[in-house]
Request: fold
Amino acid sequence: MTEQAAAAPMKLDAAVLKIAGVVVLGAIMSILDVTVVSVALPTFQEEFGATYAQVAWTMTGYTLALATVIPLSGWAADRFGTKRLYMLALLLFTAGSALCATADSIGQLVTYRVLQGLGGGMLMPLGMTIMTRAAGPQRIGRLMAVLGIPMLLGPIGGPILGGWLIEAASWHWIFLINVPIGALALVYAQVALPKDRPEQSESFDFLGMLMLSPGLALFLYGVSSLPETGTITAGKVWATMLVGGLLVIGFVLYSFRPKHPLLDLRLFRNRNLRIAVLSLFVFIIAFMGAGLLFPSYFLQVRGESTLHAGLLMAPQGIGAMLTMPIAGMLADKLPVGRTVPFAMALIAAGFFTFTQVGTDTSYVLLCGSLFVMGLGMGGTMMPIMTSALRTLHTTEVARGSTLTNIIQQIGGSVGAAVMSVVLTSRLNGSTPIPGFTDPRTGESVTEAAAAIAKQHGAQIPLPEAIFQRGLHFVADSFGTTFWVGFALVLATFIPIAFLPRKREESPLVQDPSGDGGDRAAAPAMLH
Reply:
């Protein structure tokens, strides 16, 4: 066989690229919706009269829904066929987006975000399955390059798009924009995706799903209710945390019994996977949780418009875009234990700046810090994922990929809940202003709340001295919350110190065909 003939199958032909167009369109919708809402959280607070901990559930509910359907998508794809299920996921996501735009309470918005997440969570793993089958194993590298586009665009484009839509129209349009795109994607999918037949599938662990998802939701709801009640002894807090905690513990004990559990915790016997997943979990809690607060700082303390807040977040995405491909190449040549600590050091250095934020911190310093953090993020997440999956056997990759992706989504949910609780608790500690009440509730207005309201243009007859004092308190509250995130970033150095520092042969290299048992899984892609 000539070199030309051997190289020909490696190219992505027109048929594969047509399918890739559908998958990329769905992935962009799903990933953008994780980041586009980040700049809207203060708007939701103002619109619905809610606390930051309450509006953060628009992110927590979405990511918990993503975690719920990741394991379900593989089973359902075999049971119902990938094309049919992918179009159903598009329909759920689009319908959820339309409903979000109609919400007139924070409870409704969170509910509709969960529906949106159930559809969005299936788009990426199903898209990976469809593309892997179309391209074949010999073209996985080029396939990952194509599907990496939305991963790079999401952190940059999401906050900017969200900010522009809120400023130019209203918050409703960050959801309404998905409706025409979703309709187009549905037509495109019907035409471009090849038909496939349902196949015999493994049994699905519905009992495990009924314990893990409600358990996490109840536990995090109890945690997020702390600022509202002010005490852990309130039934709304301790009862939901207790029931949720018992369900999660029950899931862990139960998951070792089924042949095909929802999460195969037996994989934690693999040292590399155990350390990598722990590193990823702590990192996601710190970085994703605190990352939601960056736009809110620009909006609530600095008084920026939503568009400007989105633009100020762009350096972080640009930094990640620069280092992600380099980190991918290094992960193939060097043990991740030799590269990830340096990337984490960049994150820690950039993060420290935000622990010092005030009411007039230099934008050059803040944007530079976000850029440095982005450089570190691009060199951290994918190498850790590589380390987690590299030493698994072919028959374990599907379960390992599911485990790491769900842990990532759970970490994001925990981070959003914890950081929002810390911030809300700090803001609630502000001193009430004598004689000032909230016209919506009749409750006394605190200095912090009044300062935030005035930053957003509310007509409050507030003396300048009190306004400045309240604004400094809000800035200090953000700084305190960032200290919590910074401590978690430092804690991540403990597990990454145990990442492999020597080259290890991967069983996947020894058995590249995947004939060892179960069908080889599509490579993992992170939201």
Observations:
- The longest strand covers residues 432-437.
- The chain has a mean pLDDT of 80.
- The chain has three domains: 14-194, 205-259, 270-502.
